[in-house]
Amino acid sequence: MWLPFWLLAVIQTSYTIQLNKPSGEFSSPNHPLPYPANSTEVWEIPAPEGYIAKIYIPYFDIERSDGCQASYLQILSEGKELARLCGKWDDGGIDPGLHEYYSTGNALRASFTSQGQQTRPFTGFRALYSHVGVRATCPAHVLPHSLLEPAWPKFNFRDTVKVTCLRGYEMVEGLKTIPSFYAECQQDGSWKTPGYSCQPVDCSIPPEIENGRVTFVTQADVTIYKSIIRYRCDEPYYQLQSNQNQFYCSSEATWENNGTGQVLPECIPVCGKPSNPVIFRERIIRGSVAKRGNFPWQVLFQRPRGAGALISDQWVLTAAHVAEGAPSLSMVAGITSTKHLERDGTRLQPAEVFVHPGYRPHSGQGHNYNHDIALVRLRSKVRLGPDLSPICLPPHNAQHLLPVNKIGLVSGWGLTENDTLPTHLMFVRLPIRELAECRGLSTGHQVTITDNMICAGGQDGSDSCQGDSGGAFVFSYPKPRRDEFFVGGVVSWGIRCGTFGFYTKVMNYLDWIEEIMRNN
């Protein structure tokens, strides 16, 4: 019978054999003949990086002794004893050959020692050794936010994988970026990498929009992958054209919206909302002095004398007879007083004038103000504010919004009842009158009256007059939009001041207006 003993002793040897082949065998001196007394022999079994050494003992016959102090086979790894073996196999013992001894590092050391007299001849041992590859030493990830190809659940020493970053990340080392790299599994279970890391892509500072600003939904001023921003307009004078105002930093390092892609939102002017609306409950007799913010769409035409209305941040609506044939237009907006035009007002520079093609003032007998409407495109957009904002165009098919007796407002610097030109902006409250009634009152005057006109005037002599031409005849929407206004008419002509006047019906020209503005 043989018995294994586990000790922490290290045997000093005098004769060492280096076993460098990947596999082979070694045995006690003279095997299969009896080994000699007082002999010592050592075998070193180194394994290359990524491998460990294994010993298997199919035959064993060494004299048994207490504590295996006389003759024995010792197996060590990294200076630590794995086993000390002696004895003879029999039916009641454990055959050392049933065990496989593995190195804890990449080398094993086997040492055989025989001492003293033997009770009988012992034939020693025969051992097989081999190198065994270390398996599953490297994890299935190399870098945070990366992908491996192939995507195996585990990797062995010297396995090589292609490393790429997840969508939305890029491979970075300092200022250098690469699409991918190859990593190698090392013996210690770590990956050998060139020092790159997967960093989220940066969309950089979000682009600005006109008349708006950017706010961060996620962390302020952080512009990396999955960051979220929201665009807002400069309220209350601008509003978003659509509700597609939230953008995220995409994996392509661009700011994108789920609905519009990279198309940025647009801030459009808010129309028809004066900062200081006229209170209709006040009783207004004849003309009244306008306050700042009552009519922010009002435009003063200095040459020729007249008026207009801002209908966007780059377009002015006026009468054709004001704009047609004028060698130049001198316009000022944002004022209620003509005393300090340059100080308080905004000078508007015309770029192009569009007179309705149907306007023929001298066709037929007398005066013909049919189609008396024109548009002026400005050289540049104006900055809107409390004293300067546009009036809304009427909705299509809005005849129901302009019934007879509907009250509207006309503002301007036209002649007063004293035949003087005021320095302060004036306004008057006027009711719409039946067009047939106005035709009857015009009998004897060579004028053309059409359904493209609105007739209005007060019983108390309220009316627009010379110098008001081209101005807007505005109306409030029904409740709950009581303080919102649209332009129903353009001041066109009248029989005489203080009676009733005619206004170009803007609703009839919406298609022409929209086409001109869209194409220019």
UniProtKB/TrEMBL annotation:
The active site is at residues 321, 372, 469. The modification Phosphoserine is found at residue 27. Its main location: secreted. InterPro entries: CUB_dom, Pept_S1A_C1r/C1S/mannan-bd, Peptidase_S1_PA, Peptidase_S1_PA_chymotrypsin, Peptidase_S1A, Sperma_CUB_dom_sf, Sushi/SCR/CCP_sf, Sushi_SCR_CCP_dom. Residues 13-132 form the CUB domain. It is found in: Secreted. Disulfide bonds join 68-86, 138-185, 165-198, 203-249, 233-267, 271-392, 438-455, 465-497. Ca(2+) binds at residue 63. GO terms for biological process: complement activation; proteolysis. GO terms for cellular component: extracellular space. Residues 1-16 form the signal peptide. Keywords: Calcium, Disulfide bond, EGF-like domain, Glycoprotein, Hydrolase, Hydroxylation, Metal-binding, Phosphoprotein, Protease, Secreted, Serine protease, Signal, Sushi. Residues 284-518 form the Peptidase S1 domain. It holds the Pfam family Trypsin. It comes from the Eukaryota. This is C1s2.
